[in-house]
Specification:
Radius of gyration of chain A: 24 Å
Largest sheet of chain B: none
Number of domains of chain B: 2
CATH class of the largest domain in chain B: Mainly Alpha
Structural class of chain A: alpha+beta
Strand content of chain A: 25-35%
Strand order of the largest sheet of chain A: 6-3-2-1-9
Radius of gyration of chain B: 18 Å
Number of helices of chain A: 6
Oligomer: heterodimer
Largest interface: A-B, 64 and 81 residues
Helix content of chain B: 55-70%
Number of strands of chain A: 9
CATH architecture of the largest domain in chain B: Orthogonal Bundle
Largest sheet of chain A: 5 strands, antiparallel
Shape of chain B: globular
Strand content of chain B: under 5%
Structural class of chain B: mainly alpha
Chain lengths: 227, 181
């Protein structure tokens, strides 16, 4: 019954199955874990069992975990200081739903198109954490969606969004809403510049920079990353 | 909402390249399922939260070990969650069980093959479990879903621990035969 191409014995196959079921005691599990790391055939056998049994997990119905779990994961892996909330945590907190679906789906407020183009995101947080802006760009539609959170600009001022490609001068993408979401179509002559660009927000006079060049202080900036 | 396998595969591949945005998207898509798996096994909300944190640290660190030709991305991540939760369970209940090493168990001989194998996608495990004696299928399910140890299964089915293990290993080999392409 053993696959002739596999050097594994029935004993090995049963052991891999016991490991996946979880019935082994801790010491034996640790032995098996070590073997998985050094024995590729055995590792594949374990993966096969995991795949075979996986449909049994269908009966376990999803339960949204508290937002602090993600905050702790990020802090542990990336050392983000508390208070700087990533776009994902922010939306999870804001909507209470985000952890159930791809954040990008929520983001658009609707399912992704059947064949979405490459997507780019940028989440910008000001130094003191008071201003947050998230941007999602869909290459296929050429549309950038932005969402503002946190503090509004000073009285009589607006936040302006800039695209910076390489060493090029910042190009204005327009004035941001003080709160909430907005769709900003990217002009066709700029779409080629979006990939891997940096987005930045500055505080400008109401209505945006009068000169087309950023004049106000830089509030936040972050690179667009492909997702 | 089910996230498509191809989407998950793409995200997992990017996580292997240390793409944090892909990792965040993966967390959004899968954390409710993985949290439920941890909670079902550990039966303690606080510990399940700690376990889920560890699980995502492992996914970030080990995404390059995923074998796309053997497992779907969701199955792999479910397994990372189950394995971690079970390690915690066994650490917690370690004192209760004293199994001999695996090679001390006599080589079990598989029983005669009687199953009519269903070819329907993804549900072969159900058909193969149905081909086992009901009590043995139940033992396999309880181990997988509830995280029962050999000690707990032996008590539940009122058989000696070594008998339980022989049963289960024999059941596994029967299942393997039934599941093999």
């Amino acid at each position: 019954m053993t696959d002739p191409r596999s050097p594994l014995t029935d004993d090995d196959i049963a052991l891999a199955g016991e490991y996946v079921l979880g019935t082994l005691d801790l010491a034996t599990r640790q032995d098996v874990t070590r073997r998985i790391h050094v024995d590729a055939d055995f590792a594949r056998e374990v993966a096969r069992w995991e795949t075979h049994f996986d449909p049994l997990a269908d009966e376990v119905r999803p339960i949204t975990p508290p937002a602090r779990v993600w905050t702790d994961v990020e802090r542990r892996l990336f050392g983000l200081p508390a208070g700087k909330i990533s776009v994902w945590g922010w939306f999870a907190g804001a909507s209470g739903l985000a952890t159930a679906v791809l954040a990008a789906v929520l983001w658009l407020g609707q399912p992704l198109p059947p064949a979405p183009g490459p997507l780019w995101i940028s989440d910008m947080v000001s130094e003191d954490g008071s201003v947050r802006l998230a941007a999602l760009y869909d290459e296929a539609s050429g549309e950038m969606r932005v969402s503002m959170g946190g503090a509004a600009p000073a009285e009589g001022r607006d936040f302006e969004l800039w695209l910076i490609q390489g060493d090029g001068a910042p190009i204005s993408l327009g004035v941001m809403p003080h709160q909430g979401q907005a769709a900003m179509p990217i002009p066709a002559n700029l779409t080629a510049l979006v990939a891997n660009a940096t987005l930045a927000i500055t505080e400008e006079p109401a209505g945006g920079s009068p000169t087309g060049v950023a004049t106000g202080p830089l509030v936040a900036a972050a690179a667009l990353r492909r997702i | 909402m089910a996230v498509q396998t191809e989407e998950l595969a793409g995200l997992l591949a990017r996580v292997a390249l240390k793409d944090r945005a892909a990792f965040a998207a993966l967390y959004s898509a899968l954390s409710p399922k993985l949290f439920a798996i941890c909670l079902r096994l550990l039966k303690d909300r606080r510990e399940a939260e700690d376990a889920l944190q560890e699980v995502f640290v492992k996914i970030w660190n080990n995404a390059d070990r995923y074998l796309p030709d053997v497992a779907s991305p969701a199955a792999w991540m479910n397994a990372v969650a189950r394995n971690h939760a079970i390690d915690r369970l066994r650490a917690r209940r370690n004192a209760a069980v004293g199994l001999e090493a695996a090679d001390a168990v006599p080589d079990p001989t598989p029983g005669p093959e009687a199953a009519a194998i269903t070819r329907s996608e993804g549900r072969r495990i159900e058909a193969c479990l149905d081909a086992l004696e009901p009590a043995r299928a139940e033992a396999v399910r309880r181990a997988y879903v509830e995280g029962d140890s050999y000690q707990e299964l032996a008590e539940r089915f009122a058989v000696p621990l070594n008998t339980m293990r022989s049963w289960l290993r024999r059941s596994l080999l029967q299942l393997r035969e039934c599941l093999s392409p």
